[in-house]
């Protein structure tokens, strides 16, 4: 069994590969491919895989464009952080639709649906399965973001609620700085990993080094260059700068 992975986030792809190996150790994995262009090139030149695991938002567009252009018959399991793509997902050969971060139990259920589809002589049943999946989607819970973070303080492991987080900073390791100005070491490997877990209404990725919580922001000022410098309610070793390209997005987020 061959599974092609379309995913432009390295950490997400790595985690997905790990889950697939655990659930389907016999599967041969291809990819991850990070763009629509790369996926089109692969699918035009090589045999169609048994199953495609496709992130909807890729580096250069949405994966729907791939399937609309090539009219593939193989089934697809879509993954995404955005529920808004659901209806479009079911207009192609979708077995399931999983919201990130991918849950192992939900992925296992998706694979079970795929196996049932494989063993169905009458593929017309597939349309009925899609109807059931759409019904299930309407009753799925809203994505839950992480509300407590474990960190190390001296020789103890402590749990910090998100309301006590001022910001995260990458300085060789990922530090959590609380609203009381306490610096704690976390076990997270990167800010990319953290960003997947955080509520985007409450946290913003300021730059490659900082993720900041909205309630910790006191003010900001705009430089003549168009960049933005943040002022926090807790101390920071250096100024936190938002690039000119992200400035407009930040202003909208800050006002909400």
From TrEMBL:
Tell whether Transport is among the UniProt keywords: no
Family annotation (Pfam families): LytTR (PF04397), Response_reg (PF00072)
| Record PTM 4-aspartylphosphate, positions in chain | 55
**Any one biological process term the GO annotation gives:** regulation of DNA-templated transcription
- The leader peptide range reads none
Could you list this entry's UniProt keywords, alphabetically sorted. Answer: DNA-binding, Phosphoprotein
Residues in domain Response regulatory? 2-115
Q: Which GO terms describe its cellular component?
A: cytosol; protein-DNA complex
Domain of life of the organism in this record?
Bacteria
* GO MF annotation, one: transcription cis-regulatory region binding
The cross-references to InterPro entries, in alphabetical order and at most eight, read:
CheY-like_superfamily (IPR011006), LytTR_DNA-bd_dom (IPR007492), Sig_transdc_resp-reg_receiver (IPR001789), WalR-like (IPR039420)
Q: Kindly provide the name given to this protein in its UniProt entry.
A: Two component transcriptional regulator, LytTR family
Q: Which organism is it from?
A: Runella slithyformis (strain ATCC 29530 / DSM 19594 / LMG 11500 / NCIMB 11436 / LSU 4)
